[in-house]
Backbone:
């Protein structure tokens, strides 16, 4: 539309006022013709419409239009999301792992063997070491599904382990015969909630060690991009370390003693009686 105008509609003829002011019940509103068809004067000629001296008219210049054909291509990346538990609601890694273990036990009861990577429900009432290991594996899968994309796979040379359904990255100690440094499980920095809890647990397990020691022990089994930055960010928020690093209270600079207290004067010279 090139030319159009705004006109004032009186409140009694405006259907919008009926809805905003709420002076009609739903039954009355259902049978009210103005609500469904608008004011009656819309059916007449424009000359019979209510007049208002402050009508606003707009006129726009006509422009030549040209029709162009374009081809738009889009790339859709489907990311498989897996979330066993909301890690943002739990503040400890051990508590998160045990909660995930109980959730997996519940899944075993209701799945009736559909999850082949979960063994049968143990008869013990307490959680077993296998259940805790399975919970750790499930949390790693959840962390990887939240952040790993094709760019990170190519950048960090990750490979997919079909046996454990997780992404791994090769270390520089692949040729060692000791066997205590397996291929690290990749933790994306985007899955900050799980990564943060794991770093905090490793830090506390080492009796609040420093950044270098915590990062070294963490990389025995896990690897995350910008690991030093991630560890430093978590350790700077550790309240126990903050108390140990806190400096004692420093007294303010004391002002000079008044002259009346340090200069020799006569008795009662500066005291009123």
Residues:
């Amino acid at each position: 539309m090139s030319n159009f105008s705004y006109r004032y509609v009186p409140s009694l003829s405006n259907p919008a006022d009926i809805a905003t002011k709420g002076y009609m019940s739903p039954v009355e509103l259902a049978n009210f013709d103005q609500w469904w068809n608008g004011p009656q004067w819309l059916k007449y000629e424009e000359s019979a419409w209510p007049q208002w001296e402050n009508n606003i008219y707009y006129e726009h210049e006509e422009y030549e239009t040209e029709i162009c054909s374009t081809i738009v291509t889009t790339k859709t990346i489907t990311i498989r999301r897996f979330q066993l538990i909301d890690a943002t609601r739990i503040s400890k890694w051990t508590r998160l792992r045990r909660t995930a273990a109980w959730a997996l036990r519940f899944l075993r009861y209701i799945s009736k063997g559909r999850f082949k990577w979960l063994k049968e429900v143990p008869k013990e009432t307490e959680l077993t070491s296998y259940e805790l290991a399975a919970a750790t594996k499930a949390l790693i899968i959840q962390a990887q599904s939240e952040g790993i994309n094709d760019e990170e796979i190519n950048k960090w040379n990750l490979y997919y382990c079909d046996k454990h359904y997780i992404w791994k990255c090769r270390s520089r100690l692949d040729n060692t015969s000791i066997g205590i440094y397996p291929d690290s499980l990749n933790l994306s920095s985007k899955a900050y909630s799980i990564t943060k809890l794991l770093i905090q647990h490793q830090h506390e397990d080492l009796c609040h060690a420093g950044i270098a020691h915590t990062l070294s022990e963490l990389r025995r089994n896990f690897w995350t991009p910008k690991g030093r930055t991630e560890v430093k960010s978590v350790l700077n928020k550790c309240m126990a370390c903050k108390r140990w690093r806190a400096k004692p209270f420093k007294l303010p600079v004391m002002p000079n003693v008044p002259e009346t207290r340090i200069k020799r004067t006569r008795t009662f010279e500066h005291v009123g009686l």
Remarks:
- Residues 200 and 234 are 7 Å apart (CA to CA).
- The chain has two domains: 3-59, 90-245.
